[in-house]
Model the fold of this input.
Amino acid sequence: MHYLIGVDVGTSGTKTVLFDEAGVPVASATEEYPMYQPQNGWAEQDPAHWWDATVSSLRTVVAKSGVSAKQIAGIGLSGQMHGLVMLDAAREVLRNAIIWCDGRTTAQCEEITRRVGAKRLMEITANPALPGFTASKILWVREHEPEIYAKCRHILLPKDYIRYKLTGVFATEVSDASGMNLMDVPGRCWSDEILSALEIDPSLLADLYESYQVTGGVTDRVATLTGLASGTPVVGGAGDNAAASVGTGVVEAGRAFTTIGTSGVIFAHSDTATIDPAGRVHTFCAAVPDAWTVMSCTLSAGGSLQWFRNNFATPEVLTAQGMGVDPYELMTAQADKVPIGANRLLFLPFLMGERSPLLDANTRGVFFGLSGVHTRRDMLRAVMEGVVYSQRDCLDVLRSMGVTFTEMLATGGGGKSPLWRQMLADNYNCPVVTEQAGEGPALGVAILAGVGVGLYESVPAACKKLLRFGAAQQPIAENVDAYTPYYKLYQEVYGALKGQFSTLATL
Done:
């Protein structure tokens, strides 16, 4: 029996899962860490926290599983996309990583667009210059921290920093690198034209692989730290959403998933590089060779519910501790007691600004319609509904591009909630299903590792063999009708406040 490991370097924590070759989870461990916000709209993390969490979780799953290290055939890496990790000549981290939901780089995005040209940028990178993407972060450091930029010798994405620590190799892969604004996405390679226009030395970037390819092996030192066998292969892996697409079987045309993690994503497979000219949604390389993906990304999906939990749900948190359950279970049970529309209360989930489909770094969260009759329970329901409206807004864009599917897979922490899944089904007006293992990105990169070391013939073949799905939650006709006027008002409220958000950002 062979085993595979998937490591998912997320925003709230790193999750490591060991699977048998049938895709069944054998052991799992999660280690959390903080996010820092030095200023409003900024977001940073310490890469040392990612590494400590990776070592601890690897050590835990190897020990818990009782599996011989020599039976672990390969490791796949998934991670939050777009983050900027900078190393010096001694391969030490120069500053905290600027992560995906950071919104400080609007001026640098304008500079990128000016240097490259908006049309040409879309043709090459398949995306506009966005504050969350890596290229603008590089330019921000060069402008505001020139002494750090001068020392920089290596630029890595979050999961690829973990790869370096595991293997000593500087490598990345096409799905994650697609979100840097530095790749020729249709051509699946670094863009010399972009790098030249932005005056970024190509030697700073890691070697580029396909997601299933082996990039290196575990070092002797890491083997001692974790209990892994020295030389265990580490494959390219994938950005978190591309990894989730493999873990939910969205690896062929006509399939899509929604994930509600810290961010919210709708992700559809495509056999061609389909691009939205307005840049409202993203086109990236898929984790499957010679395929691409079209995806939206909202910045505060599950993050909005986490914010509510941290600031307003102390009773549920304390009760959950006493019961030994997840506080989100108690919170969603409270929200389920409130009718659709949260008693005429709306929430705009723009706590970190917004990417898809608004492209507005200045927008911020709003409770609209708050009155003396509303309770904490109503606010909780409004937060959950607002997150779903933000996903529906993105889905409208995908449908306008001709992206079609017959059902929606749900993944991420929010995908585990029956209430949230029903909200998605009712707002999308289509069935919503879950993959039974529920491990999303970790399973996806474990499958990629299995393909890379020869356990499986191909990614689609492995998905067909390994994945099992639960019963679909069907849309409820009266709910579909009930949500629609609230959704339309949600869109109107943002439109009415757009100018005021820009004014607020200047105060």
